[in-house]
Amino acid sequence: MSHEDGSAPTVLVVDDEERAADTYASVLDAEYDARTAYGGEAALERLAATEVDAVLLDRRMPELSGDDVLAAIQRRGIDCRVAMVTAVNPDFDIVELGIDDYMVKPVGKEALRETVDRLLALETYDERQRELSSLKIKRNVLEIEKPNAALSNSEEFARLGARIEELEAEIADMAAELDVPDRR
């Protein structure tokens, strides 16, 4: 997966244990622009200086916890996907967290890659959903405002319908792929 300009998506790995952060980054570095931050403050500095597509965030860190970093990401309106990758077993409080995934350490290489792939796919899914919604609104407006004869003779309206069908199929495929596998 890459950006439209061909550059690799940027993934920020945040963990106060440098070895863990470096290990995760090295696993991801072949496919992504993987960067590290060794703690919450360092993460916020990185996020202020660099556009990031996904964040793998340790929850329990001294000084500034993963929950605090997550709150700052949301407050600042930073547009990225976030997965907690932590030794803290989940409790019902995760329902209220603005995260896209939650993984309990230890995390294997394949699970880590799959999680980042899914985070980035979620962003694409959301973009396609927005485009589909916009196109359907335009189609509805035209159907209300234009006579049927004008609609059936319009190449633009036909292209619009074809693009809507294409997006609906693409979104259905993506939804099936995004179904989270059982990690046990």
Radius of gyration: 20 Å
Query: Architecture of the largest domain, according to CATH?
Result: 3-Layer(aba) Sandwich
Instruction: Kindly estimate the percentage of residues that lie in beta strands according to DSSP.
Output: 5-15%
Stretches where pLDDT is under 50 for at least 5 consecutive residues are 180-184
Quickly count the domains. Answer: 2
As for the CATH topology of the largest domain, it is Rossmann fold
* SS-based class: alpha/beta
How much helix is in the residues? Answer: 40-55%
H/E element sequence: EHEHEHEEHHH
Mean residue pLDDT:
90
Major sheet: arrangement of strands: 2-1-3-4-5
Number of extended strands: 5
Number of helices: 6
Major sheet details? 5 strands, parallel
Could you state the CATH homologous superfamily of the largest domain? Response regulator
Q: Identify the CATH class of the largest domain.
A: Alpha Beta
Distance between the termini: 26 Å
Q: Indicate the overall shape.
A: elongated
